[in-house]
Amino acid sequence: MHTFFQQTLNGLSLGSIYALLALGYTMVYGIIKLINFAHGDVYMLGAFWGYYVINTYHVNFLVALVSAMVVTALAGMLIEYLAYRPLRNSPRITALITAIGVSYFLENGMSFLFGANTRNFPQAITQHNYDVFGITVSNIQILILVTSLVLMVLLQLIIQKTKMGTAMRAVAVDPEAAALVGINPDHVISFTFGLGSALAGAGGVLIGLYYNSIDPLMGMTPGIKAFVAAVVGGIGSIPGAAIGGFLIGLLETATQAVGLSAYKDAAVYVVLIVILVLLPTGLLGKNVKEKV
Amino acid sequence: MTKAKVKVAAAWFALMLAGFILINVLVVVGVVDTFIENMLVTIGINIILATGLNIIIGFSGQFSLGHAGFMAIGAYATAIITSSLPTVLGFYVSMLVGIVISVIVAIIIGIPTLRLRGDYLAIATMGAAEIIRVVINNLKITNGAAGMYNIPPLAGWPTVYVMVCLTTIMLCNFAHSRSGRAVQAIREDEIAAEAVGIAPTKWKLAAFVLGASTAAIAGSLHAVYIQTITPTDFGIMNSVSLLIIVVLGGVGSMTGTFIAAIVLGVLDTVLQSFGTLRMVIYALALILIMVFKPSGLLGRYEWSFARFFTKKEASHE
Amino acid sequence: MSDLLTVSHVTKRFGGLDAVSDVSLHVAKGEIVALIGPNGAGKTTLFNMLTGVIQPTSGEITFAGTAVPGKKPATVAKLGIARTFQNIRLFAQLSVRDNLQAAMTHRYVEHFVPIVLRLPSFYRQEQVATEWTDQLLTAFDLTDVADMDAGNLPYGTQRRVEIARAVATAPEMIFLDEPAAGMNPEETAALRTLIQRLQSEFHLTVGLIEHDMTLVMSLAERIYVLDHGKLIGSGTPAEIQQDSAVVAAYLGGGVHA
């Protein structure tokens, strides 16, 4: 029972990072139907920015987090403007290849500029372990969970309560109709990229703190896992992405806990395929049937 | 077979033969050294993989992102069988075994997942390929993460060349037949295809299985040519680079796939001297081509001797 | 004459709504039968059940002695039922010729080995298909556009290609879902001739959904009227025009053919 709660806590910490990333995938996909392959690399940019400001300016965690979110938001919007906007009316597979190109560019560009080696992320917060009913809880785990939950609530408020959020939902349902009622889809899409990238940037700083190490290719695997999480949750659905993220995090930790860590990735994909076969649009996705 | 058809077939055969002789001459006079031969073989193997993937993506319209998984099956079948049967016969037996396993796995993966649409299918096939890779990574017979080495060199560039020709003929003949029309009809409109009596699952599966079997052939060739394989050779990024060849050449154009595989193969070799910068340039080239030529280099264009001859005759009149 | 198609007590429920409710009808071989009714009356839903696209909640459908429910659309097509769609569904990036040949997929058999090795049997089969395609192209006046992509053709021609493609499956019965929608009077007149030829030349039984009452009244031998999922009338065109319930629900005062 003991290990169960311990592992659940670990799984939730990891899962919250996946959830933060999955939210970006799901928002972008919901609005322009693009698998933003470069999203995991935006998360890497966030981690590198955190590393840079903490090391150079010795700022505290909160400043690092917020500034990383601003920087990645700008990066995300820039990527959208330069690489994806010219392809708005192209086949979706073309946009996907471009996204892969952007991903390669960011990974290799960072390797070229700063070296491909792994770095130690500075300890902006000293780790303390607390013993709660026999479970070891670190302050960093609490920080990750609290920060992610706060960000998710904020996101939900932005989407549900603000004018921009309403516009986002409108464009996701029908971009042409949204344009007819005076919404500028370019602004909305740009905003969506900014929002999603900010969450990824936050995830990058948090993972740096949690795992202590960062490198230019760190975004690849979590990026794909987070996309899987978004698909499992039902792509396009915000709560779905959050649930999917936590689910994948828990699943990975669980496979490790039962001694099958070599198969943890396979387990994620088996669950993915089983869920898609049973629920072709994920847990919370809407099944839109084509009209005959 | 009419006279015109004989003429077209003869023209294709002459082209293939000319290519073979050309490479042979270049090898003899020393223009093609080991380095360039390596590049040519890599291009050839990529052509086999990408034309098969183009049947799945371009013709049947099913977005598969797991092609490297089937390549892995072929490569490991060959590595394992030739380790105890290191002869040319052993190689061809292993290739057949690889194809058979690939076909079985493709059916197992395809039946549940091919009902999914678009990106969902992409992510499911990607997951399936990763499962194959993780399994290979943990089996004893495949020597786990260390991979397999000292695979006997049972195929040189001539074998690869002949296999490129054979698989291309097979895939193009499939594409230009009743079967090709059926899978293209599904790509265009699944509901209408069903209404005219084309069973979507059956035909999608046919294209998927065909693509998987050619990928296994490519895997076998890769194993005996490179002589060392590890599970990381068959990851998601390898499936992605095959997808890039297909899209860059033009989805649905076999000619385009050939050209894209050659362009990227040469580009990769030329850029090798640039070190880390190589992938940066590669990535930029990819983005720029897609932004300025979204339908790929050739779009849906297909080179055809039949059309060429008809045009020539028309211009003579 | 025996009935080719019988529908007895068919109901389709979507959620709490009966889109089609307890409908029974029959079509004899060689007839042209129209199904009319206001928008949302359940006409297309009924067509979709007849062609296997959706399954009825209850009731029976028999075509040439075989039960239709439970079969997939592709299987239903092989039984000899073809259809066109309300919003044209062509294989847009394929040529007109390939559109027709794709519809022959189940009619002639090519095996994998003869295909990839181009054995003589492949060429024989292709020959049969090509000849048949040429006949259809001529019959539907499509020879000039045979090698053009179907998606690039004008609207009226696309309708014709869609009907030709349905005929290419060699059906016994063809369902046309609002074939005259969006057509001008000349195109509609040509369509009338075409549908009559389906009956006389191709010996097909025709099921027609159409809002153009002039067309329906001049073509159909019998008419069924659907309203709110229920059959509210049936008979010859003359009878339908006299039927007060039908007139009240749909035809209104002003329509006389």
UniProtKB/TrEMBL annotation, chain A:
Annotated Gene Ontology cellular component terms: plasma membrane
GO molecular function terms attached to this record: L-isoleucine transmembrane transporter activity; L-leucine transmembrane transporter activity; L-phenylalanine transmembrane transporter activity; L-valine transmembrane transporter activity
CDD domains tied to this protein: TM_PBP1_LivH_like
Main location: membrane
Family: Belongs to the binding-protein-dependent transport system permease family. LivHM subfamily.
The protein's name: Branched chain amino acid ABC transporter permease
A Gene Ontology biological process term: L-alanine transport
Subcellular location: Cell membrane
From TrEMBL, chain C:
Cited PANTHER family: AMINO ACID ABC TRANSPORTER ATP-BINDING PROTEIN, CONSERVED COMPONENT OF ABC TRANSPORTER FOR NATURAL AMINO ACIDS-RELATED
GO cellular component: plasma membrane
UniProt-listed SMART domains: AAA
Transmembrane spans: none
Occurrences of domain ABC transporter (ranges): 5-253
InterPro entries with a match to the protein in the record: AAA+_ATPase, ABC_AA/LPS_Transport, ABC_transporter-like_ATP-bd, BCA_ABC_TP_C, P-loop_NTPase
GO molecular function, one term: L-valine transmembrane transporter activity
Keyword entries, A-Z: ATP-binding, Nucleotide-binding, Transport
Organism of origin: Lacticaseibacillus nasuensis JCM 17158
Protein name (Swiss-Prot/TrEMBL): Branched-chain amino acid ABC transporter, ATP-binding protein
Coiled coil, from the record: none
One GO process term, biological-process aspect: L-valine import across plasma membrane
A Pfam short name: ABC_tran
